[in-house]
Structures are given as C-alpha cells and as structure tokens.
Design a protein that fits this description.
By secondary structure, this protein is mainly α. It is about 45% helix and about 10% strand.
Length: about 130
C-alpha cells in the first residue's frame, strides 16, 4: 500500500489508517541492525540496498479502497489514470486524419499551374536566346 525509506513516514501512515478504522500492518521495519534516524541518508545507496524498506499493508481487502482514497486525498499516492505512453502528447505520432478532397484538388490545380508557368517561361527563354 505505502512504502518509504524512512520508517517514521511509514509509522505515521499506519497511524492515519488506524485512526480511520482501517486495520493495517507494518512490514520490513527496522530490526536490531537498522539505522537510526540520526544516521539516515537518502544518498546512502549501500545501506538502502542492504535493507528492505518499511511498508504499510492493509489487512482486510474490503478496506483497501477506503485506504487508497484516504491516501490519495492526502497526496501520498499517485493517480492511477496514467497515460498509455511516457512520451509527451505533442511528440507522439498519431494517425493523421484523411485529407480533405477539396484541399487535395486545390493542391493539384496549383501544381499544374506552376508546371505550366515553368514550361511557358522555359519556351520564352529559349525563343529569346535563339535570336
């Protein structure tokens, strides 16, 4: 349900769940080899790798939904409606909608007109240079 590198955070979440009437249990708490709060450091990667992080578990599955809502209200859980991709929306490739027939016809007309201007211009330049 909730995991933190700091045991104090886990204890406080467990207390809040208990106050709300949700039966819970703390797993992976500090043992006799655990670090005290004074020695704690988020930057100490070796110590974190050696010990498991403490976590709060909801015992009754019926209380799980209520516990999630409580923790989301407190801002302790991320929202579950994550997008399907980690790429930002403007950078995602999306299917392009079908081309509008009127726009396509206009592009063809403009291209034909441009080709005719190039041909006529070429003929005029050739006639001018032939003199």
């Amino acid at each position: 349900m909730f995991t933190s590198a700091r045991f104090e955070n886990v204890q406080r979440v467990a207390d809040m769940l208990s106050e709300a009437g949700i039966e819970n249990r703390i797993m992976g708490g500090p043992g006799y080899k655990g670090y005290s709060r004074r020695q704690f450091s988020y930057a100490d990667k070796k110590a974190q790798a050696q010990e498991t992080q403490a976590s709060v578990w909801v015992i009754k599955s019926d209380d799980y939904k209520q516990a999630r809502e409580l923790m989301q209200d407190l801002g302790l859980l991320d929202k579950t409606d994550v997008p399907a991709s980690y790429v930002p929306a403007p950078m995602q490739f999306a299917d392009k909608p079908g081309a509008d027939p009127a726009k396509r016809l206009m592009r063809i007309k403009v291209t034909m007109l441009f080709a005719m201007v190039v041909i006529v211009g070429g003929m005029m330049a050739r006639a001018y240079l032939a003199r």
